Amino acid sequence: MPRPATNNREKLVETALDLIWRSSYGSVSVDDICKASEVKKGSFYHYFKSKSELAIAAMDKYWEDKQGDLNHIFSPSKPALNRFRDFSDFIIQMTKEKAETYGHVVGCPFSSLGLEVAGNEETIRARCDKISNEHKTFMLSSIRDAEAEGAINNDEDADLKAERLLSFITGLITTSRLKNSTKELERDLEDGIMKILNLKL
User: Averaged over 83-98, what is the pLDDT?
Assistant: First the structure.
């Protein structure tokens, strides 16, 4: 009888992301990934040349899945400010759910991984930076819509405002991870976003 079909590549990608969430990229070895995914080491190297190549595939898969949520959150059918409020709620809820799953606040995988490997793994750092920039495009579009709706002051370049938002959100999530608490995130995220947007009174 034929052997049951398996998707070892998918197992490796999902396991790598799970282990990166739980600990860190540097502390996870190829052996750890193979053991946790129940995939032989030979199969690992059939799909990936290195651990860094697998890490990139895991980030791409996570980003691909997340884009569906962001397309809904930043839908042009909603008033622009509501999109940012929904985004704030989404970040807080996701952070709390991940903390419950892993037993600690895990932060943002893109910024955490990018910071960890900066200066050592240029391909991973560049991919994390690329994903962050793609993340920014969702906010940039909604900033321009908010300006067109007359909801915020058109006081500075929209792209710069999107950069400020991304830096603020990333920093607050990182702080939550360092403190292992979502208290500041829940207290400051939406308010900080609205201050950067500079609402019209």
Answer: 97
